[in-house]
What does this fold into?
Amino acid sequence: MKIKKLFLVANIQTTALFLVICAACGMANAQYCNPAVVSYLVRDESGKLLSAAELKAVYEQLPKTIGDAQVDIDEVSLAENNERFYSAESVDWDKGEKVPALQFINSGSCEMRLGKVTLTYKGKQMRLVFNLEITRTQPQRQRRWVMESLPFQEGAFAVDLNGWPRYEHEVIPASNWKAVPDLTPDQPYASKQLITDGRVIFKPILPKLQNSTRVPLRLPSYLAAEDESNQLYAVIDEATPTYYQLQFAFNSDCMGGTACRYGVVVGQALSSKAKRMKGKPLRLARGITGYFVDGICGVSCSYSTLSWNQNGYRYTVGIYGADTQTLTSVANSAITSSVFGP
It folds into this structure.
């Protein structure tokens, strides 16, 4: 009987050890990508970095998640006159000056869309427009960002990251933050300034667009943006004699990241090789049949789109998450508009 007990205890211990090892293996295999991280250094009105206690007071007024990001406080290891940083995995981490920072991180899906963040400090609000997207396919140097801040002040500021980073582990300087119109809905003057009429939004790009393409313009006057809290702008993605693609976005210099895009408009000349349209058929204005395709989400999300042929040209409108009724209204405003074309 004693031998049986000893054997049973040994067997249980071996099984437990095996389960622990397997659990550890599972955890190691589960983390198959590097987290997406943005560390933001917060400074007071005079430009001095906030202490850990001061930063905690700012952090506690923020939601725990913003977009795809978890919000936290972490340390950054700064080097070379605060112009570069050591990553936490680096053997040089201990060499740098450790400073507290707000951290926006996604270590689950390891991709992140970070839009607008409002910080509150000593009763003042500073609205930061990141409009930043980090995907799994980006190299490691573009998955971990450290950003300097301007001295804390009232207003809205957008970061310009076009062409960045120039070098790995380089701190993005405060000079990359630019003042922008503050169109936050909780401020009375902002709601009055918000423009949702496509006839106004597309107007600034019309001269350039009309000089670049021979495709008759079908631009929607209705953009289904009445519930949006940010101003929309029209941006030319591409324009040739036989094709144009425009996006309407939340800032005028959006370079295609999903965080700043709202919708898309495409017009192109039909050729003999044009593919047949797919999707759910819908009846549009002037007896035209359109075809609706619902957007899908994978690594990133695609637009829901509605396409139709009109007078030898094919047009498409798309908006993230839009349903058939919404896109039908948008498409009909493009078909019937006399502002941009006959």
The first strand starts at residue 36 and ends at 40. The chain has six helices and 17 strands.
